[in-house]
Structure formats: structure tokens, C-alpha cells
Specification:
Blueprint (H helix, E strand, L loop, with lengths): L5 E7 L16 E2 L2 E2 H10 L5 E6 L3 H7 L6 E4 L6 H9 L8 E6 L7 H13 L4 E7 L8 E4 L5 E5 L6 H4 L3 E10 H7 L16 H8 L4 E5 L3 H4 L5 H23 L1
Parallel strand pairs: 1-4, 1-6, 4-5, 7-11
Antiparallel strand pairs: 2-3, 6-10, 7-10, 8-9
Length: 256
């Protein structure tokens, strides 16, 4: 069976207010390189047929920093959520049919082998949507994974829209997805902004798939630090240490 073509969309439009800096979040340095460069390298290693980078806050600075990147830049102004970012990216993928992988410019620790495992799960389960989840001790700020008693995923509820009971759930959405393009492109126009943030949530597609009885799969990943974003200075410091350790390990393996 031939594998379907792959497109990768990387979301990098946010300002990152919690970083308390005028620099776009994705340009903060980790082990001497902008954090976005690690995500672009992970995406490139999958050899996608199409690569798109959604930029917004200080888009010119981000585009200038990655002017040699061989993909398409998509400007998101104003920024009306993750669903809105994909709606704009869709316009650049009118003729594309295959798998659409969604990554984030502020999740620099994601590794090629993890993404390959996720894509394998997606293909094996013939899903229209596969998401990466993980369990964390403190789920504050993240969308919670809502399952039925049999363990089937029903929907994702964002923190601001969650009930007190739902907020206690420790399985959270990393935001990394793989979609079947036909399902994605037919569903994106149906997104609404009927939520507390008044944004188009990509997470709403999970419930849309469930309502149509379409297969949704979850790749529950045990190493949460790899799939979570850099949201503040302490996250940046921790990610910097992890990346430096990886680089040292890579060098020592290389010299053995």
C-alpha cells in the first residue's frame, strides 16, 4: 500500500506574552538557536510534500530569521485561534490530498522518531484525526481529554470552558495532530467562535469526528516534556538544558 503524501503545518503566530519579552516567542534561543529551528528540522526530516509556517506577531522578523526555509509562509492577522490558522493554511493547500501534520513552533523538544510513531498509529488505525496526549501532574492551562467509560475520546475541552470536574483530568492535549486532509478541509469551514476565548478552536474537530462516528485515535505519549510547549522563562531554561544534554549525547555517540 502506498503511503499518502504528507503536508506539515507549523503554527508560530503567537506573541508569547508570558515570556515577558518583545522578541517573538519562537525566536528565543535554545542551545544557541531559535526554538523554531528545532521544530522545522523535525518537520523537514519527515520529507513532507508541502511545508507551511503560520506567522503572525512580528511576522517579518520570523520570516527574516528563516528566509532560507524551503516552505510557504502564511500570515495570520488577526490571530483568531488554531482553527483560524489552519483555515488560512488550507488556502495554500487547495489541491493537496493526504495527511496534514500540525506542529507548534514553541514545542522544540519534539523528535522525529516520536512523529514517525504517531504517523504510524494514524495510518494503522485509518483515523481521520490522531492527536498526541500526555499525562501531567499539573494540567492547568491545557485542554483536557474527555473520554467515555470505554476509553473512547469524545472531545477536548479547553481550560477556560471546562467544568470543575473536567479540570481535574490529568490527560491533556499537546496540540499536535495528524488529519486526513479530506476530513480536515471539509470540517474547518464549520468551526465557530462560540467559546470563552471567541476563537476558532482546532480541538472542536475531535467532537465533529465523534458526532459523525469517524475514527479518532490518540497517541498517549509518556514523555510529557517532549510534547509540551515553552510558555515562560522557566520552560525555556528547562528546554535549553534538555537540548544541550541531547547535543552532548549525540556528540559522544558520534565519537565512540
Amino acid at each position: 500500500m502506498t503511503k499518502k503524501p504528507l503536508a506539515v503545518v507549523i503554527l508560530a503566530a503567537g506573541k508569547g506574552t508570558r515570556m515577558k519579552s518583545d522578541l517573538p516567542k519562537v525566536l528565543h534561543l535554545l542551545a544557541g538557536k531559535p526554538m523554531l529551528s528545532y521544530v522545522l528540522n523535525a518537520a523537514k526530516s519527515l520529507r513532507p510534500q508541502k511545508s507551511l509556517l503560520v506567522v503572525g506577531y512580528q511576522s517579518e522578523s520570523v520570516m527574516a530569521a528563516f528566509k532560507n526555509w524551503p516552505g510557504v509562509f502564511v500570515k495570520q492577522v488577526p490571530q483568531l485561534g488554531t482553527g483560524h490558522a489552519l483555515q488560512l493554511a488550507q488556502k495554500e493547500m487547495k489541491t493537496f490530498r493526504g495527511l496534514v501534520l500540525v506542529l507548534y513552533g514553541d514545542v522544540p523538544l519534539i523528535e522525529k522518531k516520536t512523529l514517525k510513531k504517531m504517523l504510524k498509529v494514524h495510518r494503522r488505525e485509518k483515523a481521520v484525526l490522531t492527536l498526541v496526549s500526555t499525562n501531567v501532574a499539573d494540567p492547568k492551562g491545557y485542554g483536557r481529554i474527555i473520554r467515555d467509560p470505554q476509553g473512547k475520546v469524545l472531545k477536548i475541552v479547553e481550560e477556560k470552558d471546562a467544568t470543575t470536574k473536567e479540570r481535574k483530568i490529568q490527560e491533556i492535549n499537546s496540540g499536535i495532530y495528524c488529519f486526513d486532509s479530506v476530513f480536515l478541509f471539509s470540517s474547518l469551514p464549520r468551526l465557530t467562535r462560540k467559546n470563552s476565548q471567541k476563537e476558532y478552536y482546532l480541538t472542536d474537530l475531535v467532537q465533529m469526528a465523534w458526532e459523525k462516528d469517524l475514527p479518532v485515535s490518540v497517541f498517549l505519549y509518556p514523555r510529557s516534556e517532549e510534547v509540551l510547549g515553552v510558555n515562560n522563562r522557566s520552560d525555556l531554561k528547562r528546554s535549553d538544558q534538555i537540548l544541550r544534554q541531547r547535543l552532548l549525547k549525540g556528540r559522544s555517540n558520534h565519537t565512540e
